[in-house]
Write a structure and sequence with these properties.
alpha+beta, PucR family transcriptional regulator ligand-binding domain-containing protein, PucR_dom, 538 residues, 5-stranded antiparallel sheet, PucR_C-HTH_dom, CdaR-like_regulators
Length: 538
Amino acid sequence: MVDVMPGVTLREALELPTFRRAAPEVVAGAAGTGRAIRWVHATERPDVRQLLREGDLLLTMGTGLPGDDDAAGLVSFVDELADVGSAGVVVELGRRWGSALPDALVGACERHGVPLVVLARETRFAALAQEIGERVVDRQLAELREAQRVHETFTELSNELAGPVDVLRAVQRLADAPVVVENAQHRPLDYFAGPDEGDGFLDGWPARSRRVEVAGRTGWDPANGWLVTRLGTTDRSWGRLVIGSPEAPSQRLVAVAERAASALALHRLHDRDRGTLMRRTHLELLTGLGEEPGSDDVRRRCELAGFPVHRRGLTGVVVRGRVGAVPQVDLDEVAATVVRAAHALRLPALVSEVERDLRVLVSTSPGADADDLVDRLAARVLAHHDVVVAAGRTAPDRTGVARTVAEAGQVADAAPQARREQDPDVHRLADLHLRGLLALLGEDERVRLFVERELGPLQEHDRADGSRTDLLAALRALVLHPSSKTEAAASLHLSRAAFYDRLARIESILDADLDDPDVRVSLHVAVVADELFGGRAK
């Protein structure tokens, strides 16, 4: 917890009318004048430890303090002020000291950073205390009113089951500052700019964020000017909320951050519960559309769920986590992102989970560019998750639902698992070429027999040979690097001589000429089909 007291700083207090009439001068500890004053005390007692609290300002004429010849006593007096965290000490000249304070007093205050102010003119301490006290009370009341406003804002958001965007907009409004939500890997998930902010707030974000560690749930990082609040529990933190705060944050801003974190956590919990029920319902509707597309009961249920199917284009989409992705994708998180993205685009969608895939069916109005809408949906999802997105061809009516969903699944099976720079956001049959054709054929028995006929002898050789050679890998390298056998050899970390030796053995086993274009094409198709269907043709 960041503990920042509401109050008036000594720097502000020195500008008050009563203070100004007394001709104040800061003679030591000037760097501490930005410290907040909690309250004001006037005393001539030297033993102030039991009298003062942190943030209290001391007013004195010095009549009770140790004399000029008691440097140790004056230092001990300042030590006590520093120990309790005093906001400073104000000394009126004239009664005890004429025009200057003892060097021991001034030096001790400077060493401890305790502000020391002298008043050149006589003034009523009661008037000073009253004026500062009124300002402190006013500031505290303002803090209370703002705290009430924060409380009412987040209570209303909770009652309305507001989503993350509404919560973050409220934070931006209340904080008047930029707001970022990042995930556990320090990647920004949502961002709302501050009123006077330039374009560089997110520059180098992951690297900067990894260097920021705060103790407890909430902390302030002065280097970046960030107020950081953990999202989730200590053991299961799923991200952080960051609010721009160049100056030390007030209690009100800390309250905003922590109430927002609680609201986001509550929404996440509700979202998971709602998402599980929603996906179960959507799966029933998707199954009904696939099995009984002409059913009036299924149509009515879809319409009740807010998914129009009459005179609409219907496009199947599959969203799948990449194999070997680190960290593995959380399908609940991906589903929630898909739902939010569809809602933001006003795109009706059924979102269901089947065998660790998200199967999505989107409904588009006549004349709408379905591919463009699916691309925009995918872009929003890919901004947050490392997934493969595949789409089938848009069906003009309900009778094509089973076909477009199945096609999306086949395209997802055919899509490369490793992300490549040239890959589109959404994989479609037209992007996959040979892989797309084979995906359409699915696990046709004729494809299995073709692969077995083309590659069977090599597979048998490799199984018998164990790990000593891998002729199938050599063939795969050859067909994937058709223009350069040197590159093919390098991809296997083999010398040209060793690679040529394996090609010769392949030609002998297959009784085929690898330089024959027809043979090359046939073997290329067989290799891709074998990869595509996971080697099930063996």
